[in-house]
Amino acid sequence: MNEHWQQMKCIMIETAQDICGMSKGPHRHKETWWWNEEVAEAVRENKIKCGKWKKENTKKVRKEYKKSRQNAKKVISPAKEKKQKECANDSNDSECQNEIFRMAKQMVKEEPYITGLNCIKGASGKVIVDDKGIKDSWKEYMEKLMNEQNERDHKISAGVKEGPADGIRISEVTAVLKKLKRHKARGLSGLVAEMIQATGDIGTRWILDLCNGIVKEGCIPKDWKSSVVLPIYKGKGDTKECGSYRGIKLLL
What we know:
Strand content: 5-15%
Radius of gyration: 24 Å
């Protein structure tokens, strides 16, 4: 099944590149999940000071630029914290849940120095500031969190069905492919809905064979097991404690 998936994925991506080409899009600033008017003003002022310093290159202008940069950082930090708390307080609301996932996807694309914590407390309580140490702390915490067993796991039960599994019909695959949402960002696999839909009947048959193969063999492609885990602040507790965050997984 893994070879089937890899072959199908590579054909779709290579064909899309050959026909559509590659584009980074226009160079422009994109508002982030924590953006507000105060942040916009601070960033605008910082850009002006930066341009002036590059042009004049004097100590006085450089001092003004450093001051505006520090001010921008002071404005951005509380803006992020405020937005995180707002979403954490309304996390059960369906509209807010969509906003949280939008924030998480955007955090993947942004640079670590904009959205990531520059320090975190390890399991021993010691503050860690180096990038490798921070990543290792998050990895240790998330692995423990995602693999913890609780009482609910033992209470879930399902009826036993004997005999071969029912095969997936091509009409079912066709109906699902038609409902795929377009104009969405690609995941880890590099595929988007438009690529799959553009393959027509051939692509539908590929998906059908893949799904039926998975049901028959009881295993999924390696790509489907990969995910990006994003920490989202709960809205309470120490922001440097891993336990103050819940993990959201972005698949494919």
